[in-house]
Amino acid sequence: MAQLKVYDRNMLGGPAPDREGIVFYNIDDEPFRIYGVWREGEYYARIPKTVAESVSEGIGAEYHTTAGGRVRFVTDSPYVAVSVELDGLYTFVGMSKIGTCGMDIYADGEFVTSYRNFVGEAEDRISSLAAMRQDGEHLIEINFPLYCNVKNMYVGIDKNASLKSAPDYTVETPVVFYGSSITHGACSSRPGLTYPARLSRMLDMNFHSLGYGGLCKGEVNMANYIASLNMSAFVLDYDHNAPTPEYLRETHSRFFNIVREKNPDLPILILTCPRYTMNERWSVRRDIIKETYDAAVARGDKNVYILYGSEFFSEIGNEYSVDDTHPTDEGFYYMARAIAPTLRKMLEK
Predict the structure, then answer these.
(1) CA gap 16, 120 in Å, rounded
(2) pLDDT over 70 for what percent of the chain?
(3) In this predicted structure, what is the pLDDT of residue 4?
C-alpha cells in the first residue's frame, strides 16, 4: 500500500529534544512526584503484580499499562522535553498512536501539546519537546500513555532553569476509579482527555485509575485490593464489562459491600453504563445496579451516590461516541461535566 505524503509538517509531531543546553533528569528521582503509577521491576505499574495475577490472567498481563499515570514538577524552563522508552507501540480501532501510546503536557492546568514524536527502528521511543507559551515558573503535569508499558522516562529542561517539587493537589488522597475500557480511556485522542483526567483538573484532585478495558468484572480479589487502599472517594463503573445481567447481579452488590465493609465512611459513587442509546438490555443492567444503591440506602448508608450514564449525553445524543459505546473527546467532556458536581460534593463532606 502506498504511503501518503505528509505536506503539513505539524502532523509529524514535535521536534526531537536535541537543542543545546538541555539537561535530562530521571523522573524516579527527586524532586519529581509521580502519581497513579509506581516503579515495579522493569516497568511502571498501577496495581501490584501479585494482586493483578490473583485477579485474572488478563489483569495479570496488563497490570503495567500506565493509564492515569502522571509526573508533576515546577520549572521556569522555556521548554520541557521528554525521552521515554516504551515496550512497543499499540493502536486499536478508533484510537491513534497518540491516544494509545502518546503523552501530553499541561502547564498550570492548561494544555500545551502532545508528545508524539515516535522514533527508533522498533518505534519504542517518544522523543519530543514542548515550548512553553509564557515565560516564568509553571506547574507541569505530564500524562503517561494510556495503553503502553513504560520502561523509563526522562524529562529535559534548560540547564539554567529551576526545578522544584510540585505542590500537593487540593485533594491529595486519591479518588480511585474502577471500571471498563471507558474508565481506561478508550477512545480519547490523548491521555489528558479521559473522564478521570478531566475530573482531576476540574477539581484539583489526585486520582488512581483501575480501569482495564474488557477485564474489570467485579472479582473478589480486586474488591479486596481496592478496599485496602487509602482513598478520598471511590467510583464504581464496571457495568460494561459484566458479560451478562445475571453476572452483574451476582457480583455488583458483593463488590460494593466488600469495599464498604472495610471503609464504612468512604464516599462511593456508583455509575450505570455510560451510553445514550438505551434499550431493554441496558435498562435491566441499570436496574440491577440501582438495587445495590437502594440496598445500601436502606441499610442507612449516608455516603453512597448514584449517577445514571444514560443521562450524561442528553445534550449531544449518540454523537458522544466513536462506536455507540466508547466516548469521543467530546463525550468524555460531557461525562466529566455530569459527574463533577456530585464528586465535588462527596469530596467536600
Answers:
(1) 12
(2) 94
(3) 40
**Whether 226 and 132 share a structural domain:** no
pTM of the model as a whole: 0.94
| Strands, sheet with 125-131, edge to edge from the N-terminal-most edge strand | 22-26, 150-158, 79-86, 125-131, 118-119
Query: What's the total number of domains in the chain?
Result: 2
pLDDT in tens, 223-252: 999 999 999 999 999 999 999 999 999 999
**Position 2 in a domain:** no
Longest dimension (CA), the chain: 66
CB under 8 A, 24+ apart: contacts of 2-7: none
Question: Does 121 score more than 50 pLDDT?
Answer: no
pLDDT of amino acid 93: 81
85 with 115, same domain: the answer is yes
Same-domain status, 43 and 77: yes
| Nearest residue to 161 (alpha-carbon basis) of 132, 189, 128 | 132
Distance CA 77, CA 193 (A): 25
Cβ atoms of residues 125 and 83 within 8 Å: yes
Q: Domain for residue 269, yes or no? A: yes
Same domain, 145 and 181: no
Unique residue bearing C-alpha cell 503523552: 103
188 and 156 housed in the same domain = no
Q: Crossing angle for the helix pair 195-203 and 329-348, nearest 10 degrees? A: 50
In the predicted structure, residue 8 carries a pLDDT above the cut 60: no
- CATH number for the domain that contains residue 139: 2.60.120.260
Q: What is the DSSP letter of 321?
A: B
* pLDDT at position 1 over 70: no
- The range of the structural domain enclosing residue 51 comes to 15-164
